[in-house]
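Q: Now give one record:
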Amino acid sequence: MQFTPPPDHGTLDAYYIADVLAALYRSGRTGALRVERGVFLKTLYVQDGQVAYASSNAQSDRLGEVLIRHGLLTPEQLDDAMKRLQPDVSLGKILVQLGYLSPKELVQGAHLQVTAVVDSLFQWTEGTYHFMEGPLPKQVVNLHIPLPALVLEHTARHAPVAWVRRYLPEDQEARASLLEAFYRVQPEMNLPSNFEEVFTWLDGRSTVEEIAAQTGLEAFFVAKVIVGLGILGLAEVTLTPRPAPTLETAPAGPEALPVSPTTEAVPEPTETLSVEAPEPEPTTPSGEAPVPSPTRPFAGVVTVPQRRYRQRMAAAARLRRLAIAVFLTVLAVGLSGLALWLWLQGRSPQPTPLEVPVTRPLPSSPPAPTPPAPSPEKPPMPSSAPSPPSPPVESPPPTPSPPVTVETRMPAGPGPEVTRLIEQKDLPAAARRSSEWLRRQDPQAWTVQVELACRSETVLQALRQVRNPEQMYILPKSFRGQSCYVVGYGLFQDPSAAEEVRQTHLSEELLRQPSPPRVVSVRQLLRIAGE
């Protein structure tokens, strides 16, 4: 894959913003990148190939709006700060002076503002850009945001198909291998787990469709990640001609027409490959080239055989999950029945020692005729003495053991101790208890990653937005130089149960946030938290 750096000024319909940022990163330049579209002007300040700061005249990109959107500030507090705004004092400094934000929260808000500006630029397909090289203004605070992380994340989110096809043609297979430069910048990039899954398969041998089949990710997402790594110079991407698609032939019969090897046109591949025949035998006609379809959406990344393979694998996975669910249901019903039977056995009437003394001591005591009281009872006792002596000889049955209950579900959460520590705002102790508890669980189990919180108020707010607070826990996480916490919820044996709880136990506010909660395994969550 060849990457040609774009010029310092141009239009976004000719050069995608990812190419412009990749060129600045690879050359390690310093200056200001101005991007205009109509009345909107957005500026990225770059220091040695890394993003230092960003500014925008769009209302949605202003610092105050970003802080309100992420719950770090209220509209009333912003109005109060704007009334006290002075020409030579920034809004962030006034918010800190008023106590509405801490210095760490102000830095976090600045990071969020840069992310919002970059995200909007990756959605622009028209406009002009101009890079002005030189030292940054004194009022610009350098946030040292890694540019590769921004390019990879937003390329995977917004890159158009036409731009990806510019680097990965439809008739070419792409294979990528990571370079040494990637491992130097990887510790600085805090990317989601699906990026890490792609990185592990970039060995120079696996194609895009093979990586998609192995990871279960979309082939277009894998292609965008590979292109992003390639333009950043973090991976070597090689392209090889894609093998011609196999054609399915009808079985030979009396009415079958002979195929001429000199046929000049091949039927449309999509129509030929869509023929369903039992156990077809693929054949490759010689001397013919496939005719690409101009309307296929990202065709070639997921071929028809690969799509059928993934469909079969997905169906097999669904059957396995169904079989496991049926087995666990039958096991739970059987164990419940066993426990109920044992409990009923314990409550059933049994001969007790209190019933035996009625016939045990009286017949074996002849000197008892002296007292007058028991004399009326003597006639019935001797009459029944010959028959009942044998039953008392039998020892009473042993006392039934208490009902046995077998726990088939794993613990839902760390318990009320962590909830109490969170309510007392003792987050380090709560995170320590949660980490100790989670490391004792099965790493193959599943949980719900709710959010990343860097303030105690955010953690308390999340505690009030879940159905069962005792199932919530937090793990310590260092995020861009500040102490944050990964908020988790529940523990489940399969992802379907975790997904059901995610949709029913979490509030709508949590589900509608920019980074919504998602289902991950315990191993993935511990890796995200850095444990």
User: Anything to note?
Assistant: Residues 4 and 207 are 23 Å apart (CA to CA). Residues 248-306, 351-368, 373-394, 401-409 have pLDDT under 50 and may be disordered.
